[in-house]
Design a protein that fits this description.
By secondary structure, the protein is α/β, with parallel strands linked by helices. It has one domain: Formyl transferase, N-terminal domain (Rossmann fold). It contains seven helices and ten strands. The strands form two sheets. The protein has a seven-stranded mixed β-sheet with strand order 3-2-1-4-5-6-7, covered by helices on one side. β4, α5 and β5 form a beta-alpha-beta unit. α2 runs parallel beside α7. It is globular and about 50 Å long.
Length: 229
């Protein structure tokens, strides 16, 4: 067992709140990793709640089936993004989270929310940031004639998809690929790297500093850990 794993096993399990808008496949994958006994694969944490901005988000039923508390807070009930985020802060705070994980949460968070949880929000974005912030990343990579694409896990800041990158995974783009092909290939990588990064955070190996993301006390570069591997 590694030193990091022994430290994690001797400390209290972290509390994770996952925010979703849709099917919740990344959420399920993360929750399953939290239940693994093997310290080399499991996450020393529990998903204590799954919150969606849509009551019909399919991931809510999946979370409930796993015995995870769920809540829906509809953004359509609020007149401004700031009002919604203030209510979301109150709801998420009630679960006393150590980490907030965005897993297909299709909302641009305002400073109201980000400032409340400034150093403990993560997101996974389907591009090799800083390329292709925002939507439709797979098609944009195809339209640009790129030969590679990928996915990035990053800390969330007030800049859209602009927080420090923690880890990326690359995939090749083949001449016959469609956006759907890239999406499927990227999803496979998401399921691998998101639990890994969350495990680092919950083992107290990863943190966000004023200089950027640090892993084991080392400042990560623009493209995160092991960008060239």
């Amino acid at each position: 067992m590694s030193a990091a794993a022994m430290v994690a096993n001797g400390s209290a399990r972290k509390r994770i709140v996952v925010l979703i808008s849709g099917s919740g496949t990344n959420m399920v994958n993360i929750a399953e990793h939290c239940r693994l006994v093997n310290p080399g694969q499991g996450i020393h944490a529990d998903v204590v709640a799954v919150v969606a901005n849509r009551a019909d988000a399919k991931g809510l039923a999946k979370a409930a089936a796993m015995g995870i508390h769920t809540a829906a807070l509809a953004h359509t009930d609020f007149t401004s993004r700031e009002d919604y985020d203030a209510a979301l802060v109150e709801l998420v705070s009630s679960y006393q989270p150590d980490l907030i994980v965005l897993a297909g949460f299709m909302r641009v968070l305002t400073p109201v929310f980000v400032s409340a949880f400034a150093d403990r929000i993560m997101n996974i974005h389907p591009s090799l940031l800083p390329k292709y912030k925002g939507m439709h990343t797979h098609q944009r990579a195809l339209d640009a004639g790129d030969t590679e694409h990928g996915v990035s896990v990053h800390f969330v800041t007030e800049e859209l998809d602009g927080g420090p990158v923690i880890l990326q995974s690359k995939i090749p783009i083949f001449p016959e690929d469609t956006a759907e092909d890239l999406q499927e290939r990227v999803h496979e990588q998401e399921y691998r790297i998101y639990p890994l990064v969350i495990r680092w955070f919950c083992a107290d190996r990863l943190r966000l500093t004023e200089q950027g993301a640090e892993l084991d006390g080392e400042l990560l570069g623009e493209h995160g850990y092991a960008a060239d591997d």
